[in-house]
Structure formats: structure tokens, C-alpha cells
Design goal:
The structure holds two protein chains of two kinds. By secondary structure, chain A is mostly helical. Chain A has two domains: about 150 residues, Tetracycline Repressor, domain 2 (Orthogonal Bundle), CATH 1.10.357; about 130 residues. Chain A contains 15 helices and no strands. The radius of gyration of chain A is 20 Å and the shape is flat. Chain B is built from one helix and no strands. The radius of gyration of chain B is 21 Å and the shape is elongated. The chains are: A mainly alpha, B mainly alpha. The interface between A and B is medium-sized, with 18 and 20 residues.
Chain lengths: ~325, ~55
Amino acid sequence: MSLVREESSTLGAASPAEYAAGPEEFFSLLKPRVMSLVVLTALAGMLVAPASVHPVVGFAALLAISIGAGAAGALNMWWDCDIDALMARTRLRAVPSGLIAPGEALYFGLTLSLLAVLTLATVANFLAGALLAFTIFFYVVIYTMWLKRLTPQNIVIGGAAGALPPVVGCAAVSGSVSLDSLLLFAIIFMWTPPHFWALALVKSRDYERAGVPMMPNAKGPSRTRLEILIYSLLLAPLGVAPWLTGMAGRLYGAASIVSGAMLLALAVQVYRNRDGSDANKAAMRLFWFTILYLFVLFGFLVVERGFGLFERWGL
Amino acid sequence: MDQPRRSDIALTEGQLRNRRRRNLAIGLAVGFVAILFYVITIVKVGPGVFQPMR
């Protein structure tokens, strides 16, 4: 594994790209849509923690976690700018399109990572800061730099980074890691493969051109469809588990059962539709639904716990 | 070949505008963080921080 890039020679040079970008391009480096999921999942982790904090401290901790996740995204875009330029889905990102120089993305990501970790450690506690630092390290070094271009299991193992925000949130509030937060971790961990592989089924040529061994272009679409189905079969009951363990109430239970059944139905469609435009449509439907599914699960959890419905209604 | 010095680079109007906007965004972010840390300090230490020491 080489952690030193050849393009690092550009870091010291002033290129026209260094002056072109506005604040919105820098904000796009943080992957705002991913950040919104991180905010929701980390908030859920904070709300299921066996303790509570002052709202201002909670807000600052949530802000630090989301900025840390965004900083990891910026570092990902710095490292992956060569393959991002080769894929239709990512070639318009700020770095490959030349609006932001790779060095700028690197410094931006490093600065925000440091600020986010120090802020969380100061505002909340050392464990939360350390967990956030580990999350960023895992996403940038283990996933982006090492696994992504090495193995089709890249997003399975790398998914741990995306699954950690509830654990970090719980640690920020309680100073410990609870079983409830680990259950939320497991849900996101199991959610990651069907989510990314559904997209990869449609974009497999993109990934192949960039040399990224995603499951469809490394092991074939049939194996991918089977694994999507297996992970969905594991995910759907796992999504209901917070209700069964008493972490969430009946509102969540009903939402997780209905959305889990829909997820399974869509995964079966992906498994059965193997050719032509129907296959792509089924895969994209599953991809978009997985996003909705995660929002539904964590959204209901946040609503129940955050607005006191869990206690007030005896849910 | 020598790299051009930053002072030798003539920025376009759009680049200058973006630089001003970037500076404004950084300023606002720093101000926000300063206020946030001030409020957090008050929350954590409590209003007693304003009491004179005996």
C-alpha cells in the first residue's frame, strides 16, 4: 500500500485552480448529502445514549461529528481525484473538474478533521474525539487509500466508517459505547452493501474504467444480485430489532416492518430482473429506496426519542 | 523552470469575487466557532464564572 501520491508535487505550486473556487465548491467537498445522513444517524446515537447533555453541548457535538464526516469526504475526494475524473458520476466534482486543486482539498480536509476531533474531545469527551478520529482514519486510510482499489469487499469493510456515527454520538453524550448504539452500527453496516451494490450494478462500466473492483465488475452481476438479496434478508429483521429490544417504540416498529418488507421486495426484483432496462430500473429503485429506508428508520427513532413520544405515549 | 510568484498572477474578476466570498465564509465560520465556544464555556462552567473570586 502506497500512501504517498505522485501528484503531491502539485501541493507546493500555485495553480490557477487555487483561485477559482467559491465557498460552495469547498462545501461540496464535504459531501453534504452524506453529511445529512451522518447528522441523522449520529443524532439517533445521541438520543439512545443512557445519559443526556445540555442542548448546546449536544448541538456542538453533532456539528463536530458532521464536520468530521465531511472532512473525511474532502480527503476522499483529494485521494480519488484521478479515478473520479474517469467516472461519469464523479467527474464534475470540484477537484477533478479543476475548480479546486488537490492540495487545497487535502489541506481543507486535514484542517477540518483536526478541528472537528479537537472540538468533540473538548466539548464532549476524549472517547468521542478518539472515535471520531478513528472514523476519519478508517474512511480515508483503510477504505479510500487501501481497500477501495484492492478488493470487491471494499464497501463491506469500509462500511464500518459510515456506520460509526451513532456510536460516536452515543459516546459524546454518555462517555461510553452502549449496546443500543452498536445495534445502530450493525444496521448501517448491513445497509451499506445493498445500497452501494445496487448503484454499482448500473455504473459497473464506470467502475471498471476507473479500475475500482466493485462487486459487479469484479465478481459479476449474478453474484452481486445474490449478495444484495442476502444482505437485504439480514438487514430487514435487523432494522426491526431496535423495537424488539425496547430501544424504540411501536411507531418505529411499524415503520421498520413496512419499510423492511418493501426493501426485501425491491431486492427480490433486483435478483429476478437480470437483463435490459428493467434490470437497471430495478437496481436504481433499490438504490433510492435504501436511502429512504435509512432515513425512515433513523427518522422515526429520532422523532420518538427526541420528542419524548417514546416515554410520553408509553410506546 | 521557476514557478510564478503569487504576486505575479493576475486574477480575473470572477476569481477575485470568489476570493472575497471565501474570505467572508471563513470569517463567518471563525466568528461562529468563537461564539459557540463562548456559549459552551458558560454552559459547562455555569454563570458562576462571572462571580468575583472571594
